[in-house]
Design goal:
The chain is of the alpha/beta class and 294 residues long. The chain has helices at 2-9, 16-36, 52-68, 83-95, 114-120, 132-139, 148-159, 179-188, 203-207, 253-256, 270-292, and strands spanning 12-13, 42-48, 71-77, 101-104, 168-172, 192-196, 212-215, 233-236, 240-241, 247-248, 262-263. Helix 2 (16-36) runs parallel beside helix 11, helix 3 packs across helix 11 (270-292) and helix 7 packs across helix 8. Bound molecules: ligand L34. The site of ligand L34 has 19 residues, from helix 3, strand 4, helix 7 and helix 11.
Length: 294
């Protein structure tokens, strides 16, 4: 009977824009408290090259900072910049007392040593949570700066009152930015987690087990309704630009929404939350800075 009910009414839509907007009011208040103590949270935004998608994301981040009172400082660098020049800039930002967060937007041009760049960012300013120190912290269950996209997914689940403990979660995609940290955060909440990836055989057999299915593979229409358990919660992290300019996720939204209990759309799902969590981490960094009284 429950199955029939879901079929008739369809999934509830998890609206990331609404959640991000609600968080923004609280973030604004936090920033005001900091300002009263003489600290204005500062975020350095570094964009190398001219990747059109990165341009969009970065300009949204800068706007969102403005909306809550975080001072963002943008560094738009040519794709031809050398490793050394980029590392020198990061060194300066590490030393700058007005900068509480450093964001180097990925992907970086091929000739840049990404690992070296991420490890040069001071861990206490690593609001993306990509530094090895912060990755290690996450592994042992200490969240210092949780990576923004999976952190945003956790907030969406919480906001929608979706229980996590003891549930079967399948994460499709094993990237360092989303899949792996996502799995760790869910494990920290006592979910039973499986990670699938491009080499997984018979993906549908795995996804069918999921009470909560998180998809971050970067493949349009990878997940169709036959692969989803009735009543499952489906979170779509994929962002794919089709040749006609449309943006779609990894999930066949129209098909799956008839079978799921909750589903997050693309756009308007996880994307806005990635930005909200970046603001959150930047504010937390500024609060730690204010408390440490350096
Ligand atoms: N360093 N690099 C670093 N940190 C990150 O957290 C990211 N990521 C990913 C790519 N590289 C990064 C982002 O910022 C992905 N990402 C991101 C951020 C925002 C949005 C999507 C991805 C977003 O706002 N998405 C909108 C649609 C935007 C559009 O029109 O293209 C949405 O509603 O989903």
């Amino acid at each position: 009977m429950t199955a029939l009910k879901v079929e008739q009414s369809g999934a509830k839509i998890i609206d990331g824009k609404v959640v991000a907007k609600k968080m923004r009011a609280d973030q604004k208040a936090q920033v005001e408290l900091l300002q009263a103590k003489g600290v204005t949270p500062g975020l350095a935004v570094v964009l190398v090259g001219e990747d059109p998608a990165s341009e969009i994301y970065v300009s949204r981040k800068v706007k969102a900072c403005e909306a809550v009172g975080i001072k963002s400082i943008s560094y738009r660098l040519p794709a031809t910049i050398s490793n050394e020049e980029l590392l020198v800039l990061i060194g300066k930002l590490n030393a700058d007392q007005n900068v509480h967060g450093i964001l180097v937007q990925l992907p970086l041009p091929k000739h840049i040593d990404m690992a070296k760049v991420l490890e040069t960012i001071a861990p206490e300013k690593d609001v993306d949570g990509f530094h090895l120190y912060n990755v290690g912290a996450l592994v042992v269950g200490r969240q210092i700066f949780p990576p923004c996209t999976p952190y945003g997914v956790m907030h969406l689940l919480e906001y929608s009152d979706i229980p996590i403990e003891g549930r079967n979660v399948v994460v499709v995609g094993a990237s360092n930015i989303v899949g792996k940290p996502m799995a760790l955060m869910l494990m920290a909440r006592d979910a039973t987690v499986a990670i699938c990836h491009a080499k997984t055989r018979d993906l549908g057999q795995w996804t069918m087990l999921a009470d909560i299915l998180v998809v971050a593979a970067g493949v349009p229409n990878l997940i169709v309704s036959q692969m989803v358990k009735t009543g499952a919660v489906v979170i779509d992290v994929g962002i794919n630009r089709l040749p006609d300019g449309r943006i779609v996720g990894d999930v066949d939204f129209e098909g799956v929404r008839k079978k799921a209990s909750y589903i997050s759309p693309v756009p308007g799902g996880v994307g806005p939350m990635t930005i909200a969590m970046l603001l959150e981490n930047t504010i937390i960094s500024a609060q730690r800075f204010a408390a440490s009284d350096i």
